[in-house]
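Fold description:
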Amino acid sequence: MTRPRAAVFDLDGTLLPRTSAERLFLRFLVRKRLVGPRGLLAAAARVATLPLRGREEALLRNKAYMAGISEQDVRALADDFVAAIVAPRLCPVILRRMEGLRADGFVLDLLSGTHDVIAEAVGRRLGMADALGTALEVVDGRYTGTIAGVHYFGPAKVEGVEILRRRRDFDPEVSFAFGDHGADVAFLERFGHPVAVEPDRSLRREALRRGWEVVER
């Protein structure tokens, strides 16, 4: 029996150009008054303590603004957030490519370092088979502001690929992966058809060296 073929998409910078879903979500939560000055100050204070080396990944791991917020309240808002804020910003070029792959029988997945609530809502919106994001710790129904488990960024994203693969046993060698950042190299090289989407300088250099497909918007 032939194993399924998948197409696995990154979110920030790939499906969602020039911004991050979590940055948009923070603004949305502020407008909904779930995040107030205390949460913003906690996040800012955390940023101030970070060393320059490794700051990018550390910033992505900074969830202090979520501390004390009800998980139920956040999940109740996720689909509305994606419909109103994320969906209008999704890249038409990649959406068309996604639909072409779906028509050709590929199963579509999302793999992102963003908050799992956001990733799951985007997956539902786009009719994806699976969506894997970074889980946040919850105690007594409220977020603590820390990550629970793996943060799917950089080389750790390969762990997410393995989770998705085990769920449906797709064949990476005949599957596609889409990313935009030099940190996505380990993720992309796991697949037979890696695609660099308007890549940053680091990923563009690597894609050209390896002969990977490059998509411009």
Remarks:
- The longest strand covers residues 107-115.
